[in-house]
Amino acid sequence: MNKKINNTFRVLVVTGPRQVGKTTVLDSLMPENMTKVSLDDETLRKEAQENPKIFLDSYPTPLFIDEVQYAPQLFPYIKMRVDNDKTRGQYWLSGSQLFDLMKNVTESLAGRAGIVKMNSFTYSEIKQNTEKEIFDPENLKQKQYIDVNETFERIFYGGMPELYDIPDMDRNDFYYSYINTYIEKNIKKIKNIGNIETFKKFMRDVAIRTGTTLNYSDIANDVGISVNTIKIL
Q1: 151: DSSP letter
Q2: How many Å apart are CA 78 and CA 54, to the nearest integer?
Q3: CA 135, CA 137: separation in Å to the nearest integer?
Q4: What phi, psi does 209 have (nearest 5°)?
Q5: Based on the number of CB atoms within 10 Å of its own CB, is 20 exposed (0-12), middle (13-18) or buried (19 or more)?
Q6: pLDDT in tens, 24-55
Q7: Which of 114, 165, 173, 207 fits a disulfide with 5 by CB distance 3.0 to 4.6 angstroms?
Q8: pLDDT average, residue stretch 88-106
Q9: Reduced to 3 states, what is the DSSP secondary structure of residue 92?
Q10: What is the number of alpha carbons within 13 Å of residue 40 lying toward its C-beta?
């Protein structure tokens, strides 16, 4: 996480898929004087939705609001506050529902928020080798040989932190639960998905085509739905 963003913008927004470690990283970087609230808590969520001004009055800045997408009512009030106070790093906002979150950021916090997108672990992070080196032809260093079988194994296994935090966890069980949670908590709130199994088939078909040219007609034929529906999805 680049601390320069926090020192440049009045609001720091961290987005990314569920369970990639957004909250964990921000927790580790929180200043001692920062307050944290999570809108996963239904009581706090209801308060933020129904009385956004009173909610913000109740928590002094700097303030970290986790899962902020659950209360879009907060964004106009955050905008007014940071417009009246130019202090950097006043609010940290994180959320997993990327479309909802970025819509509110774009509408209310454009030019006021620095945005960081987190994804799953990279290969270097999995190997715990995060040192960044600039290529220097006069000072070449011997690099570790990467076995091709290990490379494909890592691709197949994925980079979700929990799989490495709990080595005994079954990969198939994890992703089955992850996809179902993703559909229930994210997709169904954005689109009126009628047939869940068809949507899962769509996801698999798109995943298989990673790195190829996008062809709406081919996907529509494979999934069994119209081209227009594929474009909407």
Answers
A1: H
A2: 12
A3: 6
A4: -90, 10
A5: buried
A6: 999 999 999 999 999 999 999 999 999 999 99
A7: 114
A8: 82
A9: strand
A10: 11
Q: What are the residue boundaries of the structural domains of the chain, listed by start?
A: 3-117, 120-190, 194-233
Q: Residue 69: enclosing H or E segment and its boundaries?
A: none
Contact in structure between 71 and 39 (CB atoms under 8 Å)? yes
Helix axes 98-108, 74-84, angle to 10 degrees: 40
Return the structure tokens found at 64.
Answer: 């970290």
Kindly state the tokens that stand for 9: 């913008």
- The enclosing H or E element of 113 equals strand 113-117
pLDDT for the residue 188: 67
Q: Which two tokens stand for residue 162?
A: 């929990």
Structure tokens at 133: 């080196």
The CATH number of domain 3-117, selected from 2.40.10.120, 3.90.1570.10, 3.40.50.300, 3.30.1360.200:
3.40.50.300
Region of residue 110 (phi > 0: left; psi between -120 and 50: alpha; otherwise: beta): beta
Buried b or exposed e, range 143-175, using 16+ CB within 10 angstroms: eeeeeeeeeeeeeeeebbbebbeeeeeeeeebe
Per-residue pLDDT, 99 = 66
